[in-house]
Each structure stands twice: as C-alpha cells, then as structure tokens.
Amino acid sequence: MNARHAWLPCTIGDVCEFESGNGFTPQDWKARGLPIIRIQNLNGSQSFNYFDGEPDPDWIVEPGDLLFAWAGVKGVSFGPTVWNGPKGVLNQHIYRIRPKAGINKNWLHYTLEEVTSEIEGKAHGFKTSLVHVRKSDITGAKVALPSETEQVAVASTLACWDTAIEKTERLIAAKERHYTHELSRIISRGHHPAAHEGRVLLSDITTVWKGQQLNKDAMVEDGEYYVLNGGVGPSGKTTTWNYKANTITISEGETPVVSSTSIATTSGAVGTATH
Length: 275
Description:
Elements: E1 8-11, H1 12-15, E2 16-20, E3 34-37, H2 39-42, E4 49-51, E5 60-61, E6 66-69, E7 71-72, E8 79-82, E9 88-90, E10 94-99, H3 105-120, E11 124-127, E12 130-132, H4 135-139, E13 142-145, H5 148-187, H6 202-205, E14 206-210, E15 225-228, E16 236-238, E17 248-251, E18 257-258, E19 264-265, E20 269-274
Parallel strand pairs: 3-9, 15-19
Antiparallel strand pairs: 1-13, 2-10, 3-4, 5-9, 6-8, 6-10, 7-12, 11-12, 14-20, 15-16, 17-18, 17-20
Helix pairs in contact: 3-5
C-alpha cells in the first residue's frame, strides 16, 4: 500500500490546541518591559510596545513558539509563524498553537501554511483593513495526518526546499545588484575609461546587415546550419549559411546572442560583426 494512502483524515482542531492572546490597550503600553507581540511583528516589524505589569503565564511567548494570526489584511496578515523574536507577551488576534501528542510542530507549521488560504477565504469584517475569522474556521480545516515518522520526513524535506529557495533568491538579488552597479559604472560618462572620446555610432565600429527572408520550404531536417528568426532558439535548419560564427545576432525584440557556429539569419534578425 502506498504510505500516502494510509494518512488519516482529520481537522486542524484534532491535532493542536489554541491559546488566545490578551487585548492590550494603549494604556498598557510602556517604554520598557516585555515586548507586546502584535501581528505587525509576525510580519517582520521590529517596532514594539512594552508591557511592564505582571503577565498571565498564558500570555508569555517564548522563541520557537508556533503562532497563528487570525485577523488583519487578506494576503498579508493571516497565517502561521514560528516566533524567532524575543520573549514577550501575546497580543489579541493571535493564537499560540500547541501541538497535541504525536504531532510534530514543524509538520504542523507547514500544514497550517497549506490551509491558510482556505481559512483566509472565510474572513469577514466591515472594512478590508481589518477582517477576521472564527476559531471554528481554523479548527474545522480538513487535513491528512501521516504517522509521526512521516511528519518528520515531510517537514525535513520542505525545510530543505525552503533553504534552497532562500539561498537562490539571495543569489539572484546579489547578481541583480552587481549587474546594476556594473552597468551604471560602465555607461557613466564620469567613470567610463573612454569617456573623453565621446559617443560613436554603432555603424562606425561594426558592419551591420539584415538577414534574408527564409520560409519553411527552405528548411530541411538534416540541414547543416541553424536558422535564427529572432529569439534565442533556432527555427529549424537549412543547407546554406549567410552569417559567420562568433558574431552577434540582434533581434528586433529579443536579447543579443553570440553564435559559436555559422548560421542562417532571417529578416527578423540583424547580424553585426566588429571591424
């Protein structure tokens, strides 16, 4: 039997307990004390109000606690968060989630993420800036429950993917920053090594010619030369070439491409060769 088929149908209310935050008012806000954890802090804000009174133990949030925001703006506020900030007290509109026996917290976090859009779809209120869901909207969400061993395996796999995605996004962002910096440096008149020479026409430093008209009849399956018709990918093959290797193809609407072999270009591409 496929292990996935053995997962048991259940609801979110079957796998965890919910504890509500406290409705702190502006009169409770102080300059020091325990930070009051609000929805904006779950979204990354480091701006806190503080409570310096004697807190109820049920309000206390420790780093690593699983929280769920159930009010705010759709697409922004709702959903689960593993709290990685300082010890604090929990504000209203946020539940602390306690996994029941046999439930892995990391699996529960991913499962809550999976059902958040469904839960959020049931949100209601008088204005879009503050809508909320009922507790029953969360506890009634249906999920499939794997064994505890499988829960750990699922959570571990998803965590690896999250790490890979995060690293990839950082690399892309770094590359974009480097590209922007280098582009600015190269084209800036104040920094370009040949800035004093001024600008020149492309035709002054290259030979430019336009490709010939090629239709499907000119293309053959066993042709020796690729046909470029704008874009990066070839349109087919032909038996003759009109464009030498190691020059540049510029399409009217695509990115320049350097070809390593002789090719044929159509009227949709312009070839350039340096003197």
